[in-house]
Amino acid sequence: MPKGLLTGTVPPVALQRRWRDLVDRRLPQAARARPEWPVRVDHCFARILLDNACGGPWRESVAPPAWANMPPDRLAFAIDLGEAVLAAKADLGLLNRRSLAWRGKIGRAVPTSTPASLTGQGFVLRRWIRADDAPFAALNADPEVMRHFPSTKNRSESLIEARAIDRRFESDGFGPWAVEVPGEGFVGFVGAMRLIRPMPFAGGETAGANVEIGWRLARSAWGRGLATRAATLALADLFGRCGVPAVVAFTATGNTPSRRVMERLGMAFSEDFLHPALPADHPLQPHVLYRLRAEGAFAEGGQAPTDKAPEDHRS
User: Fold this and answer.
1) How far apart are the C-alpha atoms of 30 and 19, rounded to whole Å?
2) Domains of the chain by range and CATH?
3) For 315, which of 4, 36, 195, 249 could close a Cys bridge (C-beta 3.0–4.6 Å)?
4) Residue 91 DSSP code
5) pLDDT in tens, 134-184
6) What is the CA angle 79-84-88, rounded to 5?
7) Which DSSP helix (H) or strand (E) runs through 216?
C-alpha cells in the first residue's frame, strides 16, 4: 500500500462523487435485474468493495466515512472493482464471501486445508506470526528493498499489509508465505496472491481470474538464490494442493533482478502494460508481465535453477 493509508488523505472530489453514485445509485439499480446477486442495498455494496480493496475489514485501516478518508488509490481500486461487477467481470458472490469470511460472519471462503508450513532447503515457508511485525516493518522501511515501489512504508502501513497478506490464506487457501531462515528468523515473504483488481493486460480484466506469484526479501537474504528456491516450493504447493492451473508475475520494467527470478522459474515474457495504481507520469508505471502454466512447470526434476545471482524483492 502506498503511503497515506492512515493519514486521512482525502480523495479528489470527483472520485468521491463517482463512488457515491456507484454505491448509492448504479449498483442498487442494477441489482433489480440481477437476482443472483447476494446483496441489494448501498451499504452492503460498499462493504464488499471496500473490504476487497483493503484486503480485510476496511475499518481496520480507514477511519469512517470511507468515501472521505480512503486514500485515492484504494478508492479508485474499489471503484474499478464495482465497475467490473457491473460489467460482469467480477463475481459479486465471491467478493461477498471473502468479505464475510474476513469479518468472521461465515467459515473460510474456500475449503482447502492450508498446511502450517512448507520446508525447503535451508528455509521454511510458514504462516505469519506477530513476531514478524518488526522485521517486516524494517524491510518495508529500507529504501533499497523498496526501490521499485512508489515509496517506503511506515510501521502502521506494514502492519496493515501483514494482516491483509495472512488473510489471503483464509479467503483463497493460499497466500504469500513468511520466509524463515534458521539462525536468521523472518527475512521476507514469497507466495501467491489472487488478483482482485482488474488489470490492463490480456485476461486481467476479470477480477479474481489470475493468480500472481511474488516475493519481497530483506537485503540480508539477497544473492543466494532464496527467492527462486522459495518461489519454486510455493508454486509446487499452488499447482499441486491448490490446483491453480497458471500464474502471472509482473514488475516495473527496469527491475532486472526480479525479472531474472521469473525467468529462472521458467516463466515466459507475455507483454508490457501500464500499472493502474500509478499515475501516467510515474517512472514505475511501465510494467512487464510474465506467465507460467502448471503443465510442464519445473519439468526437469521438479526444481527451478538456483544460481546465486542477485535477486530483488518485487514481482
Assistant:
1) 15
2) 13-102 (no CATH), 117-293 (3.40.630.30)
3) 249
4) -
5) 999 999 999 999 999 999 999 999 999 999 999 999 889 999 999 999 999
6) 150
7) strand 210-217
- Cα(126)–Cα(56) distance, rounded to whole angstroms? 20
CA distances (Å), 224 to each of 123, 167, 221, 239, 271, in order?
12, 29, 7, 25, 28
Is the C-alpha dihedral spanning 136, 102, 198, 235 positive or negative? positive
Residue type, 226: L
3-class DSSP state of 210: strand
pLDDT tens for 79-89 read 999 999 999 99
Cα separations in angstroms, 299 against 246, 268, 303: 15, 15, 8
Cell numbers given for 11: 480523495
- Can you tell me the distance from the alpha carbon of 221 to that of 96, in angstroms, rounded to the nearest whole number? 38
Rg (CA), the chain: 19
**What is the value of pTM for the model shown?**
0.86
Closest CA to 87 of 204, 206, 2, 181: 206
